[in-house]
Design goal:
The complex is a heterodimer of chains A (296) and B (757). Chain A has 296 residues and is an alpha+beta fold. Chain A folds into three domains: 7-53, Uridine Diphospho-n-acetylenolpyruvylglucosamine Reductase, domain 2; 62-174, Uridine Diphospho-n-acetylenolpyruvylglucosamine Reductase, domain 3; 181-295, CO dehydrogenase flavoprotein, C-terminal domain (Enolase-like, domain 1, 2-Layer Sandwich), CATH 3.30.390. Chain A has helices spanning 14-24, 37-42, 80-85, 87-92, 94-101, 106-111, 114-120, 126-134, 151-154, 230-236, 242-249, 265-295; strands spanning 7-9, 28-31, 50-53, 63-66, 71-75, 137-141, 146-150, 155-157, 160-161, 168-175, 182-188, 198-206, 212-220, 227-228. In chain A, helix 10 (230-236) packs antiparallel against helix 11. The longest helix of chain A has 31 residues, at 265-295. Chain B has 757 residues and is of the alpha+beta class. A seven-stranded mixed sheet of chain B has the order 3-5-1-12-9-10-11, with helices on both faces. Chain B has a five-stranded mixed sheet with strand order 7-15-14-13-8. Chain B has a four-stranded mixed sheet with strand order 18-26-27-28, sandwiched between helices. Classes of the chains: A alpha+beta (296), B alpha+beta (757). The interface between A and B is medium-sized, with 25 and 28 residues.
Chain lengths: 296, 757
């Protein structure tokens, strides 16, 4: 369990990092928190000839709220544990705090980074699911251009993203949901800290009559990627009872989960829908409460 | 002095928890070279080509070796526990022209460090011609033999019959058949296997550091493989991070490191990693049972029978101890007048099976306890009541169940079985949970209970060698070394009491063939029974020896001397007092060694007993399983250190809960393991474990002078059955059976779905 030889480089600035990526492209693996890459290297499942350590790039850290666009920009190197403690995240994106708490164990959360999890694109991971649901926008930078990619276009499949070999994810910008919305995240795993067998999250807004006016819904572990569920979101609009919520969630029934040693496809689908129902119900109930508080 | 029975903290802990431990991987002798193994990628294949050339040319490589280069050691490894019923097949250090499981060593690389060794291993080119793999022992039994020259893959059949056996079922009112499955589990000591071998060409001595459970057996096996005189081999087990049975014998890597050190005359080190632990170290459980119980209408057992298949993997390195122990442990603490068991030990294309904590005891317990639950359900009888009826009663003791138990007829000396079970049932509020109660909400509660009879030790000998050190402390050396059990504390407690010395004056030394010339090792819950009683014997002789020496010094008769708390006084003359340190000084001046050793021979196994009860909550929608309460009552005989005894009980129980709920190595049809990492193979973790509430019984064992019993395997025996019972109870509205381990939410989901079809 020792990695194959590689060249190690630790750039001091983003341009330096982009220059290196420009030159070596897909020969390079980027080391951020190392929570996935290091095991892959040690087990020789990945044998890159070059590893670029971006932990020295301070510009990749930091969380900023922009009141004009009503968005939060989160630096790529933000550790999961920082997400949990950051006052801006806590105020504007509290659902990310809940999601980050579900990631692995303290040691993993202390090292693991936002962009590291996103570009690794494990279909069961919490942050891809959250970004897909919240419609996060990824800032991908290369030496020659800077482009913005919507989360739904970013995640392509199992461990596959739209990120190009010469690009670095610099930040993610997340629209802040309405203050009167409610949210919830639920996941199912065998042990604390394991990757979820299935996960679901919802952000719901209601009108004063308790009807759902807007819904954001996402699932993880149920297909090749963390994803938003537009068909469930559409079906939820106008709903105001548990029956309607379950019917909307069951729109997910056509999904084709993976069958592996942890769970059969059938069980994953079953649990996924149950978690989705539960998270929508909780988010809905929180939304009604929040709407009441805002209108009072 | 009263140390026996005292809840003392471990003297070894400060060193270990402050990082001062010295494990095999910490040992780096000057000039060490590192070994990496090229392992089979196929479960069953012919090797058509082995090209070492490219690997040999990598800078830093010392040598690359296949079976041709190592012809001198290409012979089968010694068999552990030979048995006339077994057609034994042990592996050679490297596979020859065929591989038989994924992970079998094919070639070995030696290089300047482990990184280069692994780089070179990747450059060894092996040609495979894949053959059909056998992955199910029920089919493999009649499939063409895996090993040429051996007539059948069923290498042994274990059979016992008590009373009228199967024929007795005709007298039963109710007969229930149950199919049971225990999955394959991996022991996973915290420290993977490893070895450092150092052959000194000048002295012609081979020094080996290995985390083995028995240094003397290890030495004998290595000496025989290398054709060396045992006197030229010294084996040291340094700090060792867990063994659980799988570090009890030598493996191919041990022979390779030892031989290559002799050939290269430099220290050779192999430190197995976690990936290798998954595909090279003996595994266990992995049985399929078809069991049957017949009872009278009143619940009284008429007969029990069982036919099972032991998936043995590709070789029989440790004999058939697992299957044999499974068979004889089925009746447990119950009165089973008629009994028949047939165990088929069958080779497959998997890692070999060898004892892992329990070594058949958990399997036997699982069979019997599941049978009782199912037959109680069929009779409409309470699951506790059927046990109460069939547990051996105190007035029937000592009880012989008609089966052999390690050398003689199995004789259960004492145990208050009903009483113990009832106490645990009361403690866990069994009546409340087992009967219909408030079932609102998604979490459904259920209770399960299981009894066990823990057979421990029972064979061989073990020694204690006492020596007076220069400072007056007493060294106690033994061949049964520790892998975390706390021997340095517990053996010292016994020695201090029997020598009537302060605890601090005892130094326990273990894990070194130079410290004592004979020994067997630590396994089968034998160490305290064996070493404890040997210590008692040695203490008597050693004390006499010191008194004789003191008598010489005082020119007094031994009868006139008084021994107390490390000093010897001439009776009635307090001024004539000497300490053991004084004696040591005098002995050193006279160049006399004050040493006494004694060996205790086993007189058959000890029998402890106990009950586990668990309350689980099962989520009605996701089938998540949570343990809400866990009660244990455990008979440990005379307990030397209750803190360590609790640790053994809890540790074993947690491992049992792993087998019950989480662990199972999964293979595809070609014999590839599908979950051989800790990402996918789930060990029980702290977050899922409950607080264990333990009460102790102390029924002294009558067959040894100290009254000690082994206590390391009781914990791992009943959790599987208790969990299955509790989960069934929780999901009673679905009327499903839970007879397959591990019990996963996915399995429950499919059982419920199956049931509703």
């Amino acid at each position: 369990m020792k990695p194959a030889p590689f060249e190690y480089i630790r750039p001091g600035t983003i341009p330096e990092a982009l220059q290196y990526l420009h030159q070596w492209g897909d020969q390079v693996k980027i080391l951020a928190g190392g929570q996935s890459l290091i095991p892959l290297l040690n087990m020789r499942l990945a044998e890159p000839s070059r590893v670029m350590d971006i932990n020295g790039l301070e510009e990749l850290s930091g969380v900023r709220y922009d009141p004009h666009t009503h968005t939060v920009r989160i630096g790529a190197l933000t550790r999961h544990q920082q997400l949990i403690r950051d006052p801006i995240i806590l105020e504007h994106l509290p659902m990310l705090v809940e999601a980050a708490k579900l990631i692995g164990h303290l040691a993993i959360r202390t090292r693991g980074t936002l962009a590291g999890s996103l570009v690794h694109a494990d279909p069961s991971a919490e942050l891809p699911l959250m970004m897909a649901m919240l419609r996060g926008v990824f800032e991908c930078q290369s030496l020659e251009q800077r482009r913005e990619v919507a989360a739904d276009d970013f995640f392509l499949g199992f461990y596959m993203t739209d990120l190009q070999p010469e690009e670095l994810v610099v930040s993610v910008t997340v629209p802040v949901p309405s203050r009167s919305s409610g949210y919830a995240i639920r996941e199912f795993s065998r042990r604390h800290g394991d990757f979820a067998i299935a996960a679901a999250s919802a952000v719901i807004s209601t009108d004063t009559q308790g009807r759902i006016v807007q819904a954001m819904v996402g699932v993880g572990g149920l297909s090749s990627r963390g994803m938003a569920c537009p068909e469930v979101e559409e079906a939820l609009v106008g709903v105001k009872d548990p029956q309607g919520i379950r019917e909307a969630a069951e729109r997910l029934d056509n999904i084709e989960p993976t069958d592996d040693v942890q769970a059969s496809a059938e069980f994953r689908r079953h649990v996924g829908i149950e978690l989705l129902v539960e998270s929508i119900e909780t988010a809905y109930s929180n939304a009604k409460q929040a709407t009441k508080e805002v209108t009072q | 002095m009263g140390y026996i029975g005292k809840r003392m903290t471990r003297v070894e802990d400060e060193r270990l928890v402050t990082g001062q431990g010295r494990y095999v991987s910490d040992i780096e002798l000057p000039g060490t070279v590192h070994m990496a193994i090229v392992r089979s990628l196929y479960a069953h294949a012919e090797i058509t080509r082995l090209d070492l050339n490219q690997a040999q040319q990598l800078p830093g490589v010392v040598g690359v070796f296949g079976p041709k280069e190592l012809a001198a050691i290409m012979k089968p490894l010694p068999l552990g526990t030979p048995d006339p019923r077994l057609d034994a097949i042990t592996p050679m250090p490297l596979a020859g022209d065929r591989v038989h499981y994924v992970g079998e060593p094919v070639a070995v690389v030696v290089a300047c460090d482990r990184y280069v060794a692994e780089d070179a291993a990747a450059l060894v080119s092996v040609g495979y011609r894949a053959l059909d793999a056998l992955t199910d022992p029920r089919l493999a039994a009649t499939a063409p033999p895996l090993h040429p020259g051996h007539p059948s893959n069923e290498v042994a059949t274990v059979e016992y019959r008590v009373g009228q056996g199967e024929e007795a079922f005709r007298d039963a009112d109710v007969v229930v058949d149950v199919d049971l499955r225990l999955d394959r589990v991996v022991a996973h000591p915290m420290e993977p296997r490893g070895v450092v071998a150092h052959y000194d060409a000048k002295t012609e001595e081979l020094l080996i550091f290995a985390g083995t459970q028995g240094v003397h057996g290890y030495r004998r096996a290595i000496a025989s493989m290398l054709d060396l005189n045992e006197d030229h081999v010294r084996v040291i087990a340094p700090d060792t991070g867990g063994g659980f049975g799988v570090k009890n014998r030598i493996y191919p890597e041990d022979v390779l490191a030892a031989y290559l050190s002799c050939q290269l005359s430099v220290p050779v080190k192999w430190q197995g990693d976690r990936s290798e632990e998954f595909i090279s170290t003996n595994q266990e459980r992995d049985q399929w049972h078809h069991a049957r119980i017949g009872v009278k209408k009143n619940g009284q057992i008429v007969a029990v029978s069982d036919e099972f298949f032991q998936d043995q993997g590709a070789y029989t390195p440790a004999g058939i101890i697992v299957a044999d122990t499974t068979a004889i442990c089925i009746p447990g603490p119950y009165r089973v007048p008629n009994f028949a068991v047939t165990g088929h030990v069958v080779l497959t294309n998997k890692v070999p099976v060898g004892p892992y904590r329990g070594a058949g005891r958990p399997q036997g317990t699982f069979v019997m306890e599941r049978l009782l639950d199912h037959v109680a359900d069929t009779l409409g009888m309470d699951r506790l009541e059927i046990r109460r009826i069939n547990l051996i009663k105190p007035e029937e003791l000592p009880y012989q169940n008609g089966l052999p138990g390690r050398g003689g007829p199995m004789t259960i000396p004492y145990g208050e079985f009903q009483n113990t079970m009832d106490q645990v049932a009361t403690a866990i509020n069994y009546d409340h949970y087992s009967h219909p109660h408030d079932t609102r909400g998604p979490w459904k509660l259920g209770v399960g209970i299981a009894n066990y009879l823990e057979m421990s030790g029972g064979a061989g000998f073990e020694g204690a060698r006492m020596r007076l050190l220069d400072d007056g402390r007493v060294e106690v050396a033994t061949g049964a070394s520790s892998q975390g059990q706390g021997h340095l504390t517990a053996f010292a407690q016994v020695a201090a009491d029997r020598l009537q010395l302060p605890f601090e004056q005892i130094v326990v030394v273990e894990g070194d063939t130079s410290a004592i010339h004979r020994g067997i090792g630590t396994f089968g819950s034998r160490s305290m029974m064996m070493v404890g009683n040997a210590t008692r014997m040695a203490a008597q002789g050693f004390r006499t020896k010191l008194l004789e020496f003191a008598a010489e010094m005082f020119e007094a008769s031994m009868d006139d001397l008084h021994w107390e708390n490390g000093t010897i006084t001439v009776k009635g003359v307090p001024s004539r007092t000497i300490s053991l340190a004084d004696i040591a000084t005098r002995a050193a001046q006279e160049d006399r060694a004050l040493v006494y050793e004694a060996f205790y021979d086993a007189t058959g196994p000890a029998f402890g007993m106990g009950t586990h009860a668990v309350v689980v909550a099962v989520h009605q929608k996701t089938f998540a399983i949570e343990i809400r309460e866990y009660q244990i009552c455990h008979d440990g005989g005379v307990v030397v250190n209750p803190l360590l005894a609790d640790g053994q009980t809890i540790g074993g129980t947690v491992q049992g809960l792993g087998t019950a709920l989480f662990e199972g190595l999964v293979f595809d049809a070609t014999g590839q393991p599908l979950n051989a990492t800790f990402l996918d193979y789930l060990l029980p973790a702290a977050g899922e474990m409950p607080d264990f509430l333990i009460s102790e019984r102390e029924y002294p064992e009558p067959t040894n002078p100290e009254g000690f019993k082994g206590i390391a395997e009781g914990g791992i025996m009943p959790p599987m059955a208790a969990i299955c019972a509790a989960v069934e109870n929780a999901l009673r509205e679905f009327s499903i059976t839970v007879d397959q381990l591990p019990v996963t939410p996915n399995y429950l989901f499919s059982q419920v779905k199956e049931g509703s079809r």
